[in-house]
């Protein structure tokens, strides 16, 4: 009997649970049937400013998504693009073939404009991809040199012996340290007597020196303090930039043999004397 009552009580609770569940389902159906959940109904309670702000935020998120999905372009030399790379950049098969034909001739494109002339790409595509073009430094330097050379006729040439560190820095390729080195070497020489002496500056490339000599030249030869070769010591002779210790000893030896050097030209008789530097060495010597 107790077992029957317990079973009946359990069935009663079960029926009540089912009844409650049915009521909930019917209530939800009525809510969805009679209440309009459309976006217009919901957003009608939002202000225009809030809607605008929300739209702006959505646009920003969309841009971020597009940027993440888009393939990043790294700087590249347009002379060496492959078929696949050209396709990625938006070039047509015909445009890529034109570039390949040009390169097969052993030629190179050295500017964005030249790339367009060879391939025939549109202005809009060139504008989109040319910021990523990366040409060798020598190409860029060559363009600058060509420009400087072209404008050299309009440049007022300054005396190289009066030029300052700031003046030398106006030359492309000459920075602070190199400009100071030029001035220091000039002081050691007591001034440049020949334009060619600029090429002797340590770590100054010939191309850079060429550009410097467009703006600066020897206009007035310096007054050099000369050493009397008949009284000079070895240590005094080696102060001459063009005389090393061995050459200084040879000069002293020769002087002792002849008793006195009558003319600087006699130095040419010394065995092993660097004849190609005679004019430079003679700048700093005299024979009284």
Largest beta sheet, briefly? 2 strands, parallel
**Unreliable runs:** 1-10, 39-44
Helical content band:
55-70%
Strand portion, in percent? under 5%
* Computed structural class: mainly alpha
H and E string? HHHHHHHHEHHHEEHHHE
Overall radius of gyration: 43 Å
Largest sheet: spatial strand order:
1-2
Number of domains: 5
Shape: elongated
Mean pLDDT: 81
Cα end-to-end separation: 151 Å
Tally of DSSP helical segments: 14
| Count of distinct strands | 4
For this entry, give a set of tags.
elongated; 288 residues; 5 domains; disordered N terminus; 55% helix; two-stranded parallel sheet; single chain; mainly alpha
Task: List the SSEs and their pairings.
Elements: H1 2-34, H2 39-43, H3 48-69, H4 83-89, H5 93-104, H6 112-119, H7 123-129, H8 137-150, E1 158-159, H9 165-168, H10 176-189, H11 206-215, E2 216-217, E3 227-228, H12 234-237, H13 245-258, H14 278-282, E4 285-286
Parallel strand pairs: 1-2, 3-4
Task: Characterise this structure.
This protein is mainly α. It is 55% helix and 3% strand. The chain has 14 helices and 4 strands. The chain has a two-stranded parallel sheet. The protein is elongated, with a radius of gyration of 43 Å.
